[in-house]
Amino acid sequence: MSEQADVIVVGGGSTGCGVVRDLARRGLDTVLVEKGNLTHGTTGRMHGLLHSGGRYAVSDRKSARECIEENLVLRDIAGHCVEETGGMFVKRPEDSEEYFQEKLEGCRACDIPAEVIDGEEARRREPYLARDVEKAIVVPDGAVDPFRLCVANAADAREHGARIETHAEVTDVLIEDGEVVGVEVEHDTGPGKRVHREPGTTEEIRARYVVNATGAWAGQLGEMAGVDVEVRPSKGVMTVMNVRQVDTVINRCRPKGDADIVVPHETACILGTTDEEVEDPEDYPEEEWEVDLMIETLSELVPALKDARTLRSFWGVRPLYEPPGTGTDDPTDITRDYFLLDHDERDDLPGMTSIVGGKLTTYRMMAESISDHVCEKLEYEAECDTAEVPLPGSEDFSVLREYMEEFGIRSPVGRRSAQRLGSKTDDVLSSVSPNPVVCECEGVTRAEISHAIGEAGSDLNAVRLRTRASMGNCQGGFCTHRIAAELTQEYPEPVVRDAEDELYQERWKGQRHALWGRQLSQAMLNHLLHATTMNRDGDPAGLDAGVDFAAFDAGPDAADDPTGGDAGADSGTAAADGGRPFDEGGIDGDR
Amino acid sequence: MTGHDERDTTTDADRIDDGDNAGDVHEPHPGVPTLGRDEQPSIFVPDDGEPEVADGGDERSAATDGGVKSATGGSDSAELDPTTYDPVDVFPGGDLDLRDGADSCYKCTSCDTSCPVAAVDDEFPGPKFQGPEQWRLKRKDDHDIDASITSCSNCMRCDDACPSSVPLSQMHNEARGQFVERQMEKLSREYVRNRILSNYRFFASIASKVPRLANFATNLPGAMWLAEKTLGVTGEREFPPFATQTFRSWWRERGGAQVENPDKRVAYFHGCYSNYNTPEVGKAMVRVFEHFGYEVLVPPQKCSGTPMFANGMLKDARRHAETNVEELVAAIGEGADIIASCTSCSMSLRQEYPELFDIHGIEDVSNHTFEALEYLRIYEDLEGALADSELDEERAFAYHAPCHARNQGLERQAVETFRDVDGVVIEDVGDSCSGISGTYGWKKEKYETSMKIGEEMFEHMEHAEGDVGMTECPTCAMQMEHGTGYEIEHPLQLLADALPIDA
Ligand SMILES: Cc1cc2nc3c(=O)[nH]c(=O)nc-3n(C[C@H](O)[C@H](O)[C@H](O)COP(=O)(O)OP(=O)(O)OC[C@H]3O[C@@H](n4cnc5c(N)ncnc54)[C@H](O)[C@@H]3O)c2cc1C
Ligand code: SF4
Ligand code: SF4
Q1: Is residue A471 part of a domain?
Q2: Is B87 in Cβ contact with A304 (below 8 Å)?
Q3: In chain A, whose CA is at the least distance from the CA of B146?
């Protein structure tokens, strides 16, 4: 299969999604290819801070100005992805007064609204702040949901004729006559929605221009095209707390440092972060000390964090770019600005541009500038309107009413649904009966789940990202199977099983870094419930091999059984573990 | 918080208030209450009419203040001691933020499976949702509490069921308070009705001045019909009769305590019901404790707050708590422990008080409170005392353990105390909930739920050998009587009969 488009955008992070929306709205025929889900890369593994610019007000005023500008734009065009939490830079006694003043001046110089409040007032607003916090600068930080944001951008692009392909990895960049003419992609399960167990396919997609928006992977894509893109990936840890200890973004007011921010996000709080250069954006160590550091250091600001329950930790890699020859040693010194690398100018390879660096907050601005650049290359003229036109879901907030009574859902559940769905709430909640609530921790209704399945196929991680289902304190222990059950309306049983396993595994992955105290108890309860009620520690249906039914009832003569022991005990064992063939070891709940 | 000093107005109020003792000037006799203060009808002054001094006019403020978490027992709530400071103390006007309570929940659903309301009412989402889930989903400026919170009867079985000590009833109480404060139409019939039911004590105090008339009036044909139509109080139940003489007036008449003993003192928290409706329980308490050589004090007191918590009337509850705590702290100062004959009263003083309010000394009150039988089982050799006792005639009881007794670990005490007594047959009718939960079963829209919950208990009572019911809780007693027609006794009454007390 082959197709000629105007532009291929590689990478479904905030940058790629922003670019594809922009170009599609300008009327170009655009294709987005992403190897995983949307936000599979760094965008799905970040803090969710909608920067006010305050964090850069001292070190990088250009970035700071861009942040506040885009911060205001996103509140307008992406209302359903943004929570206007406000933020504070708090000063502890040991933090420098001089820096506090610099920060304040910096904010003012960059037109970031900033107000100084004393410690008492800060604690009135955020009662869990430490008692010795002396004062704070209040800035308009916010929280942004990166997934909702990317999905909305992609949806708008699709409405304007773009093709969006997820689970489609670029395996080669096609070059003809010294010019990039397209890419080769491998579809995980064929083009379109991802459905487990469908065979993969390969496709060549041809286009007049290719945009490399693969962030930390930009070097790899560059390699495929034979050019050097010097991205220095740098990892950062984020730790998710079970509840919101604060409702405002809390930053430590001191020069760059690890563990200096708490972002309230939906029902949780996210602590961050570190900055450590790594070799490979996909293969780097996830270390315990990093998590410990978050909790310990940040409990200087919010003491309650010390005893609070942690749900999981995850890591993201920053796509930091360093122009050749800069030679910076410390990753935190690398600029947070973004760079547009025109490979025609740079490497004599026309037809492709890479964009690296930057922040999620300024994704739209980056997308605008790269779209301008692409249009120039294609000698195409069109205006950018992405700063004015709201994203799907954020168009009309007057439709947000009291959903609870209308759809018979409980008040906090209705609120959360409406906040996630924005102006789509009506359609979604009226499509299927919203009750019963499928994910109790996050208050996700059945209607929301089936709507997400309609968009995402059997990919339950994509459903999770759309709805937050399985992201609460049980981490999927009580709801993965319920969510999977919703799939059975459309998909055969083996697909449902694979989908369920995949989601459960994904949830387990992050929880591994929170296995002490209450989350450990939770994990044990989950494990036992799944083992004892669903036989998931040895479910014959989960094995590819046939079931050895003889093992259920080996009878008193089964003395030569490899596990040894007396015959009675053997048959008991066989029955208890569901007749698992003995050579099929290593199956337990931690798969 | 009330801005009243009720003490100043006592003398006048006494006279109006307490006909049988008007003009009586006492030398304080041990255990004889200061007249009147506790029985003024001042308790139904609507909140709106009160000077809101403490809150600086913040109309959103609820009555709770995070309860006591500090090591000092909340005794320096006025000046926060930085070393014992706890974040929940600083919410202005007292809103509690219980989101962190959700940290302990494993979603195991034990609470839901033990909830008697959820068992019979499909619309009720259950304690897990009402508590940890709702609080976790809530945000600071997001004050919507789901209306289903009013369907919780506050039986507190969920507290008991939770393996992880999630403060469920505290979460429910706070949520109910916020719901009532902010979301319930203040002039709605439901609000007025709940306010009246939860301030039962006030009406009871008036009715007991003219008990015969009150009994007559509430039993007039049509009286209950009228209550149902105008207030939404169910017409299926009969109002409990008022005693012709309140416990307190009996106590005064008898000249207060008959035993003086500075080493063994107890302060009796009789609660509303045994004062106004079943003074025989209070009298039995006095006889039993005096038999064991205790000096009984009867401090001035107001409602324990149980019905108010259950109706989200936290401001009312707080006002009453202030008086109670002050008086009970004084009694503790005189060396007394606090004894209640109603398990909901002891529950309230023990658990709900320090969870919801931070009042000087409230933790002390909590630590010194006991249920009457519990206390005797701890400090006296009841078994020995009952070893030779013999009742005049053989008696058989169908005993129901109130949910609130269960919460205090007292569900077996009556059976264990009496099963070996000669001439007594006592049978536990099972661990189901009676279904009335105080004022809950009085509400028209809850009546059916209440009776459905009670069904199991009624059935078991009928199967039991005895045809006299027994329970520690006055409202459970109402329900038992209503469902079976049995006469109901309090364990203290049987104890008074079984002990060799010269009447
Ligand atoms: C720890 C951390 C915290 C952060 N916090 C914030 C914050 O609070 N606020 C903020 O504004 N910014 C924050 N950032 C920065 C922000 O997350 C990133 O700048 C932004 O998400 C980058 O988006 P992107 O689209 O450029 O890259 P990515 O999101 O990484 O997108 C690249 C995509 O390309 C895909 N891809 C790679 N190779 C291929 C291939 N061969 N074929 C197809 N697809 C491919 C990847 O799967 C990936 O999805 C943070 C970054 C980190 C690391
Ligand atoms: S207090 Fe009783 S009625 Fe209320 S939720 Fe708990 S168990 Fe259910
Ligand atoms: S019993 Fe306790 S831990 Fe279990 S679901 Fe209920 S509140 Fe949570």
Answers
A1: no
A2: yes
A3: A411
- From B91, B125, B136, residue closest to A410, measured CB to CB: B125
> How confident is the model at residue A198, as a pLDDT?
80
Residue A430 lies in a domain: no
Could you tell me the CATH number of the domain that includes residue A28?
3.50.50.60
Closest CA to B440 of B320, B308, B323, B315: B308
Are B90 and A123 inside 8 Å of each other by CB? yes
Range of the domain at A284: 83-142+232-320
Mutate to test the pocket of ligand 2, among B145, B148, B155, B166 (most ligand atoms within 8 A of CB): B155
Q: Which of A245, A440, A471 to mutate to test the interface with B (most CBs of B within 10 A)?
A: A440
- The predicted model gives B227-249 an average pLDDT of 77
Is A554 within a domain?
no
Q: pLDDT tens digits for B337-358?
A: 999 999 999 999 999 999 889 8
Chain A residue at shortest CA distance from B86: A128
Q: E strand or H helix at B285, and its extent?
A: helix B279-291
pLDDT band at A535 (very low <50, low <70, confident <90, very high): confident
| A84: chain B residues, CB-CB within 8 Å | none
Quick one: pLDDT band at residue B142, thresholds 50, 70, 90? Answer: low
Cα A587 to Cα A144, A535, A540, A542, A591: the distances in Å are 39, 11, 10, 9, 7
State the average pLDDT over residues A228-254.
92
Neighbouring residues of A56: CB distance < 8 A, sequence distance ≥ 6: A63, A64, A67, A336
Instruction: Copy the structure tokens of residue A346.
Output: 């740079």
Domains observed in chain B: 35-182 (1.10.1060.10), 209-242 (no CATH), 247-378 (1.20.1050), 381-498 (3.40.50)
The reported pLDDT for the residue numbered B198 is 73
Are A142 and A82 spatial neighbours (Cβ–Cβ below 8 Å)?
yes
A20-40 pLDDT per residue, tens: 999 999 999 999 999 998 999
Same structural domain, A268 and A366: no
**Which residue, A320, A353, A386, sits at the end of a domain?**
A320
Q: What pLDDT is recorded for position A187?
A: 92
Task: For this complex, say whether ipTM is above 0.90.
Answer: no
Of the pLDDT bands very low, low, confident and very high (cuts 50, 70, 90), residue B20 is very low
Q: CA dihedral defined by A444, A447, A449, A450, rounded to 10 degrees?
A: 170
* Alpha-carbon distance values, B221 to B90, B227, B228, B442, B482 (Å): 53, 11, 13, 18, 18
Residue B31: which pLDDT band, with cuts at 50, 70 and 90? very low
Which tokens hold the place of B80? Answer: 């926060």
Residues A168 and A132 grouped into a single domain? no
CA of A519 to the centre of ligand 3 (A): 14
Q: Three-state SS across B109-174?
A: CHHHHHCHHHHHCCCCCCHHHHHHHHHHHCCCCCCCCCHHHHHCCCCCHHHHHCCCCCCHHHHHHH
A95, part of any domain: yes
Q: Across the strands, what pairs with A354? A: A212, A341
In the structure, what pLDDT confidence band is assigned to residue A416 with cuts at 50, 70 and 90? confident
B92, B103, B145: residue with CB nearest A518: B103
Sequence-distant (6+) residues with CB within 8 A of A377 are: A209, A344, A353
One domain for residues A119 and A194: no
pTM of the full structure: 0.78
Determine the average pLDDT of the residues in A414-424: 77
Q: Which tokens belong to B432?
A: 């189901």
Crossing angle for the helix pair A480-487 and A493-511, to the nearest 10 degrees: 150
Give A330's pLDDT tier (boundaries 50, 70, 90).
Answer: low
Rounded Cα distance between A117 and B439, Å, is: 47
- Is any atom of ligand 1 closer than 6 Å to the C-beta of A361? yes
Cα separation of B254 and B29, whole Å? 11
